[in-house]
Amino acid sequence: MNFPLYIAKRYLFSKKSTHAINLISAISVLGVAVATMALVVTLSVFNGFHDLVATFFTSFDPQIKVVPTKGKTAPSDDPILAEIRQLPQVDVAMESVEDLALAIYHDKQTMVTVKGVDDNFGQLTHFSEILYPDAGKEVTLHAGILEYGIPGIRLAQVLGTGSNWHDYLHIYAPEREGQLDMTNPEAAFTADSLLSTGEVFVVNQGKYDRNYLVTSIAFARNLFGQQGMLSSLELRLKPGSDFDGTKKQMKQIAGDKYKVLDRYEQQADTYKIMNIEKFLAYVFLSFILMVACFNIIGSLSMLIIDKKEDVATLRGLGASNRQISSIFMIEGRMIAAAGAVLGIILGLLLCWLQIRFGLVRLGNTSGAFIIDSYPVSVHFWDIVLVFVTVIAIGWVAVWYPVRHLSKRLLDE
After folding, report:
1. CB 235 within 8 A of CB 82
2. Closest CA to 31 of 296, 228, 239
């Protein structure tokens, strides 16, 4: 039998001579539980926003994107790219040409990112699901000599085109060869124009909605002088494929010439910022947890004073000083563990209630935001991290005070 553990459990659950000690012990458990609950809920909300943003990018970004490591473009007939296309796990492969250009509509103009795509762009992503006003509509980006474009919703607002413009949208890109003739500056640009499909797309991300204009790859190649070239090879794998294994295989084929990026790597800056925010929230709440653990110190200090006579009895029965110190040390750690378990249970309960009923809303008006209530996503390893953090802080917090107070008691 573990003698210190047995006595510590007796002290934790038994009545003390002073009622205030029981009250302070309960407050200690509750303080740790509240801080733990805050950690669980906060990290789960950050996970919810992380997953929500991931769903936005899923509609526009490909599952895997292969881009050159040097320069903006690469030959579309590169044997390396051909080998990647022919992997049995690849379901859809699409070439894309992407670059900056100047868009002018009537008296309004702005810089845009023109993304030229193949006809199978809708098979590669969920692009048709983010079209407005007709979500799910299949659109054609070229018909004969006519070329069509689909702007992001905020870009359409900036240019004043709306979802369906009736005149030409003029696109200008600088010539890649030759010298600038100051007497005829217009000669330094390649100009072309687009018609409207009657749609705009809505990713709910400013990076795309404000800057991107989707059109056919033939239009983009002519505009930028990139015949036979591509900016990226975009891929979707067959359902059930080993994603990590296939990506690793593609990297081996690509070598140093190309980068193979999944959706998270394509949006590395966005996710890096979100992860930093989540980490900072974790750090700040951990400091609050440390403050809550000071209640444990107060509870144990009063318990040590209350048990002076018991300590003398235990010493008379042969208990060593180390065993007596361990009794109070274990009790402090049990308080921390009880607070951790209670806090995790309460945190998970709150997360379930938020998922089920949306208790905390983002606004008073339904539909004012993309979602009506705060998103929540509970991740197993976050719960493990919270539990380990609470136990570690609780155990460290009680070590020195208990050691110091019990030593003074034993020396008396």
Report:
1. no
2. 296
Pick from 65, 53, 66, 34: nearest CA to 275: 53
Q: What phi-psi label fits residue 70: left (phi over 0), alpha (psi between -120 and 50 degrees) or beta?
A: beta
- Residue where the block lists tokens 């000669």: 187
Location of structure tokens 């394509």? 266
Query: Whose structure tokens read 């868009």?
Result: 103
Peptide bond into 133 cis (omega under 30): yes
Q: What is the pLDDT of residues 193-205, one digit of tens each?
A: 999 999 999 998 8
At a CB cut-off of 8 Å and minimum separation 6, what does 379 contact? 43, 44, 47
The H-or-E segment that residue 40 falls in is: helix 19-58
- Those residues whose C-beta lies under 8 Å from the C-beta of residue 79, and which sit 6 or more positions away, are none
Q: Name the residue type at position 55.
A: T
Alpha helices in 110-197 (DSSP H): 121-124, 153-159
Phi, psi of 280 (to 5 degrees): -65, -40
Q: Report whether 101 contacts 111 (CB < 8 A).
A: yes
Residues in the chain: 412
**Can you tell me which residue has the tokens 């296309």?**
85
pTM of the model: 0.77
pLDDT (tens digit, 9 = 90+) per residue, 218-273? 999 999 999 999 999 999 999 999 999 999 999 999 999 999 999 889 988 888 99
**Residue among 325, 351, 341 nearest 386 (CA):** 341
